[in-house]
Amino acid sequence: MAIDRRRFLQTAGSAAGLSLLPIGRSGFAASLGAQGPSGAPAPRLVVIFLRGAVDGLNVVAPYGERAYYDYRPTIAVPKPGTEDGLVDLDGHFGLHPALSPLTPLWQAKSLAFVHASGSPDPTRSHFDAQFYMESGTPGIKTTPDGWMNRLLASLPGPHRPTEGVSFGATTPRIFTGAAAVASVPQGRNATRPEATDRPLVSSAFARLYDGNDAMSRAYREGQAARGKLMTDLAADMTQADNGAPLPDSFVTDSARLAQLFTKDAGVRLAFIAFGGVDTHVEQGGARGRLASRLAPLGQGLANLAAGLGPAWRDTIVLVISEFGRTARENGNAGTDHGHGNALWVMGGPVAGGKVYGAWPGLESQALYQNRDLAVTTDFRSIVATVLERHFRLSDTALERIFPAAPARGQGVDSLVRA
Amino acid sequence: MTRSDGPFAAGVFRLCRALCRVVIPGLPLLALALPVTPAQAAGDPAGASQAQALHVLNRLAFGPAPGDLAHVEKIGVQAYIEEQLHPERLPLPPGLARRLAALQTLEMTPSALIADYGPPPPGPDGKRDIAALKAQRQRSRIILDQAVAARLLRAVESPRQLQEVMVDFWYNHFNVYAHKGLDHLWIGAYEAEAIRPHALGHFRDLLEATARHPAMLFYLDNWQNTAPDSPGARGRFKGINENYAREVMELHTLGVNGGYSQADVIALAHIMTGWGLAPRRAAAAGQPMFRFYPRRHDEGTQSFLGHDMEGQGVAEGEAALDLLARAPATAHHIAFELAQYFVADQPPAALVDRLASRFLATDGDIRAVLETLFRSPEFWAGAAMNSKFKTPYRFVVSAVRASGLPLDNVRPLAGTLYQLGEPLYGCQTPDGYKNTAQAWLDAGAMTQRLSFATRLGAGRLPLDRAIAPDGTPEAPAPEAMVRPEPLSVAALQATLGGMIAPATLQVAADEPLPLRAGLILGAPEFMRY
Fold first, then answer.
1. ipTM for the assembly
2. Pairs across A and B, CB distance < 8 A
3. In terms of CA atoms, which chain B residue is nearest residue A179?
4. For chain B, N or C: smaller number of CB within 10 Å?
5. pLDDT band at A193 (very low <50, low <70, confident <90, very high)
6. A226 vs A363: CA distance, rounded Å
7. Domain edges within chain B
């Protein structure tokens, strides 16, 4: 029975992916929806972390401001309507052309940005800033777990081993904590069988890892999740890439994620990190180094939206990065570590087609320390608003996920549809 | 360094070989349970307890190889520590030296590497030939392959284990990512020239060697860092780049809470202007890759960490590195990292303080700081023993060492490290790989580790395939196509002694023969050290 339902969803998903964008707007998809095992709606959240501090001023560029072009003589992206120009968003901001695969989502109002957002902590250390954004506690280094793990623990039970999935070989800080998280292996050989998939081997190791210590728990959680994940991933992936080299890891990851979401309704939270955006030298404008990193990201996200089919209706994707970069380009046609950034929010429930946030402007006196875009919206109030609406979490749960966070909803209270 | 090794002392090697063949029957399995007091350790009783011997082999080495345990029990833990603190006195076995000598790109200077393997220069029209560029990328892969081979061969087989352990430590401290631009050319030279010779030397020399190395200059962008409006400022060299200045303080020296400000980052960036790379043509003519460009240097005075630094060319940068190397915050930062690496994920504060004092008192003599560490009661505390969770690198290397298998083909090991999230030279960010359980104890990774242990134990990893000069394994000899031979459980027991719990041996004994050694190498006690 479950298989039949999965097959049906899969067919529906690929049909939707082929025939229409935006998805989640058609009557067919809306009537089917994406449901949990019990038939209730199953809200899902994907968090994509751009490690290395992506240059938000070139992702969502304030082309309407002269200062943007004054500050960035060689790396500013040309205005919309010119060659290699920005994709106009609202007459003031434009989207980097390498992200044009996301344009249909913007037009369908399921993509939004919150500009001049970020962490209130002033650090320009990648590692501290990432820690704070993942722990959800800016300025506090002793927090033992990550906010996505606390979120996972706050979702109503019963918990399944694949409720939270993380892409990569190690658990990132954001998912560290008491609740079990499954890892989805990356790379081309990710879905090949392992020796421990053989029952003889796994049962022998189960005797060695039968305690209640961290290693034994990790072994059992890994085994429990692996069986499920491999069943859902194995067959289709080999067909999808036909053995050819995969163009980019994020494109693969997003395809795998779409597959997991459509096949396994038990997956609720997913995390993927993506690097290579620490552009201190020659970051380029419309083309070049940053553009070449954004392109697979945009394509992967568009594929994810398409691949999810009806499940897109219940999915929200956040793209976050530890801080922004200097408003002015540096001496090597790059940018150095800055402060405020743009946070991306997309998905069926998003009230998109809008750049949210109080825009402080780029005039010298408006910049943070006369160098960086200021932060006018705390990332926690954005994420907490999304969590509150999307997962219908209580104030108590939200306080546990983001302790001592600022009030929710300031300027972003309409970000998620009721 | 291998290339400066003295003549080989054949006698010592024969002794090692003889020890390797010793089979130790009925080792006491309860040794681990016995508490070890600092007094015992300090007294260095001849014939160390097995728990102590295993502890030094786990922490100063990548775990015991066949014969190591008997060796340490015979000479005592203090003599072993002394031996390891002086790697220059330990000859490399000729078989290892021969295999290392075959990796010829590791003998090349950065200038020769870029001249021989660098990307083809653009044509007269300024355009690059994409096909030629791809061919160059393909051809230059040998450099990374050989660096990986050398690192793993040494880690598994070198008797200078502490040096290999410290190479792992310092490489991650001064991390460079192999896949950033030109760094794919210099990754092996970076370790050979900047890290390895100073692994047990003076911190200031390490800092100097890394600061000037083309691999680091490229990785953290300082090669383009230029004083704005200086006579040499043009083209891509137009102005300040903060990247190196920030990371050298945050990661290499003071630490993130080491008391510097954004103004200090900018001041240091100005101080380091002009530290760059020689042009390709000069490199091809044999000139060093590091070059200081006075015309791009900021000759103004900078206020840096409360000092007025005058613009005096390259000496200004040297003075800044002096300040950083000798700052108490740096001593504390390095002491914390060493204590975390060698003692506990949450290192005892008193130990960190003592190591920092020793660091300051000896002007950053790493050997002296390690001496203090290895004598400390914290290092010998029962709670510290077997308390660390192995990194993927340590797990893989220790398993192959324990197996005693001949190693020619490192590809299965490099591939496993990739799967486990710790590819060699593959950490993209300058903070390097962590060595804590928090970073590596992971549900998915446990499955991968156990699969690796199972295949290694069953004799299914093709580690003994000969390697062609281009780094690829040659086709297996016909005799290698026979059924894989599982590792001997008795030999593993002899090698690892009381490290393996009786309960594990019992579980292994119940299972089919090909699975037994894998269960030992995948047992919980082999994940810790």
1. 0.85
2. 162
3. B443
4. N
5. confident
6. 52
7. 328-380, 389-529
